[in-house]
Design brief:
The chain is mostly helical and 126 residues long. Helices cover 74% and strands 0% of the residues. Helix 1 (3-51) packs antiparallel against helix 2. The radius of gyration is 22 Å and the shape is rod-shaped.
Length: 126
């Protein structure tokens, strides 16, 4: 292989690797999150509606569904939709729906939980 041909191959490979790395680091969530949110969010809301079907109809129940829908639509990163990160959120919802009545206090707790999750004020491990 000639020196000129070798240098061209190295230059092209370097540009390709840099471009792929940039796309993965900066744009991957946009390309993957958008289409996956269109599939995951309706399934999540439908599943939640089925799970809290026994809860008495009230404005708090409607507010809870709206809060969850807005939270799911506002997700900015795929890690927020992962199984580990959403497990706490689902447990919180299940704990308030155990007695088949959603109170304003419980709804406020969910709002605070969502606000903390949205603002990334998570505690760090020491």
């Amino acid at each position: 292989m000639k020196k000129g041909c070798f240098l061209k191959v190295i230059a092209i490979l370097t540009i390709l690797v840099a471009a792929i790395t940039y796309i993965i680091q900066n744009k991957f969530n946009e390309y993957l999150l958008g289409p996956s949110k269109k599939i995951i969010v309706p399934l999540f809301i439908e599943n939640l509606s089925k799970n809290i079907k026994f809860v008495k109809e009230s404005s708090q129940k409607d507010s809870l569904l709206t809060l969850v829908k807005n939270y799911a639509n506002d997700v900015k990163d795929l890690e927020e939709l992962s199984d580990d990160s959403i497990k706490d959120f689902i447990q919180k919802i299940q704990s308030i729906s155990v007695d088949s009545v959603i109170t304003n206090e419980e709804l406020d707790n969910i709002k605070k939980f969502i606000k903390i999750r949205s603002s990334d004020e998570r505690s760090t491990e020491n």
